[in-house]
Specification:
- By secondary structure, this protein is α/β, with parallel strands linked by helices.
- The protein folds into 2 domains: 1-34, no CATH class; 36-212, Rossmann fold.
- It is built from 7 helices and 8 strands, in the order H-H-E-E-H-H-E-H-E-E-H-E-E-H-E.
- The protein has helices spanning 2-12, 29-35, 69-80, 87-95, 121-133, 155-159, 188-199, and strands at residues 42-43, 60-66, 105-108, 136-137, 142-143, 166-167, 176-184, 203-212.
- Helix 4 crosses helix 5 (121-133).
């Protein structure tokens, strides 16, 4: 009966869990819970390990998992396989790992201007966090120019990113925001976005990512 029900659900809603393959499930609750093993946080000022001796009062980057094969089974379909629907349940599951941050907005890293994806995977994750925490998610930041894709860049190329690569709208001035992204590699994108926000009068109180590849 269970198999027949699963097959029926798949006809009505042709999806399957990217982790276990269960039909009719975008992401099983059991699988979502099994994905996470939060690594040590990073410093949002420099990307180094937290607590940071150079920036003792800096906010932190919290990640739900190391960038391992299991978390890739969810992130890669979300990012490159068109599985947009997995973003929100993934974010909602992540929210259970931490207390609700004291912030006004969740601010995802913007979709790259060269992307053909059609949706921002970081915003999808942020919406899941939003539903769980009751903090609005706004996809408001934009890249100021076309830049090479971040995927595949080495550490030096990632660190070369400047804060002026981001356009932070004036309407966010005076707000406290939390940054959201799918993967933290060196921390450069988040640290530069945080600097751009601070320059625009926006207070960044922390950042959350699904995975941390610990390329440092």
């Amino acid at each position: 009966m269970s198999r027949l029900l699963s097959a029926f659900l798949h006809v009505l809603w042709p999806v399957s869990c990217p982790v276990c393959g269960r039909l009719g499930e975008v992401l099983c609750a059991e699988c979502a819970a099994s994905l996470f093993a939060p690594p040590l946080p990073r410093c949002l000022r420099c990307g180094g390990l937290f607590p940071c001796p150079r920036h003792p009062n800096a906010p932190r980057i919290r990640s739900a998992s190391p960038y391992n094969e299991k978390i890739k089974s969810v992130i890669l379909p979300l990012k490159y396989g068109g599985l947009r629907a997995v973003g929100q349940p993934l974010g909602a599951a992540m929210a259970t790992l931490w207390e609700r941050p004291d912030a006004d907005l969740l601010l995802p890293v913007p979709l790259h201007r060269r992307s053909r994806r059609g949706y921002n995977q970081a915003f999808e994750i942020a919406q899941g966090l939003s539903q769980a925490w009751g903090i609005e998610a706004v996809d408001a930041v934009r890249w100021s120019r076309r830049l090479p894709h971040r995927a595949g860049l080495n550490r030096e190329e990632r660190q070369a990113l400047r804060p002026d690569a981001f356009i932070v709208p004036k309407k966010l001035r005076g707000l406290r925001v939390v940054l959201v992204d799918d993967v933290c590699t060196t921390g450069a994108t988040l640290t530069r976005l945080a600097a751009a926000c601070e320059s625009a009068g926006v207070s960044v109180v922390g950042a959350y990512t699904t995975a941390n590849s610990v390329e440092k």
